[in-house]
Design goal:
Order of helices and strands: HHHEEEEEHEEEEE
Radius of gyration: 16 Å
Number of strands: 10
Structural class: alpha+beta
Largest sheet: 8 strands, mixed
Strand order of the largest sheet: 1-4-5-6-7-8-9-10
Shape: globular
Helix content: 25-40%
Distance between the termini: 30 Å
Oligomer: single chain
Number of helices: 4
Length: 187
């Protein structure tokens, strides 16, 4: 999937969510309800005819036929992305998304997303957060020149647009920790 296609896919899902499901914000539902509606719209836009092999799933905790472990040697822990686009029973992983409705900044989920790209070879990682009745924030991660690149977007309900902000950050993993190395201005 091309990067711009991913952004258009999410913009469509946000447009549908804010057009059809405003009651979810008025009743302050859990993030799982919002993730569920987004998954429906993502699948519809990505493959409305259900002819493609890849599909959108929620809380999917399998890798092939086995439980998706946080690390291969960890037999007790497992991971289940809030929303993902993948081909089931393969390692064809397109995107991994974590959702935090009330977080107002990038959070621990950002590390999970970066790890999914690096360790599980997801093409993209997304961290959806600060979901409010007038919009939401979305961090998009991908591999870029040996680093993980993070680009920030804001969806605005009124303009019906997913707008790129001026925030881009690059990350590397050192001693099991993610360290920012520079932003797009080289700082």
């Amino acid at each position: 999937m091309e990067y711009n296609e991913l952004v258009r896919l999410w913009e469509y899902a946000f447009q549908m969510l804010y057009e059809k499901d405003i009651a979810l914000f008025e009743t302050d539902v859990q993030e799982r309800s919002i993730a569920g509606r987004l998954a429906i719209y993502l699948q519809h836009k990505y493959d409305g005819g259900l002819k493609k092999d890849a599909c959108v799933d929620l809380e999917y905790n399998r890798e092939g036929n086995d439980i998706k472990r946080s690390h291969p040697e960890d037999v007790n822990g497992w991971i289940a992305p809030d929303i993902l686009l993948h081909v089931r029973k393969t390692k064809n992983n397109i995107f991994y998304c974590e959702v935090k409705k009330k977080s107002t900044k990038a959070n621990e989920d950002s590390n999970r997303v970066k790890n999914a790209i690096r360790e599980r070879k997801y093409q993209y990682g997304l961290n959806l957060y600060d979901i409010r009745k007038n919009g939401a924030r979305l961090s998009v991660f991908d591999e870029y020149d040996g680093t993980i690149r993070q680009v920030e977007y804001v969806y605005d309900k009124y303009s019906k647009a997913l707008n790129k902000t001026n925030i881009t950050q690059y990350w590397v993993k050192s001693n099991e920790k993610w360290i920012p190395v520079m932003n797009e201005k080289g700082l």
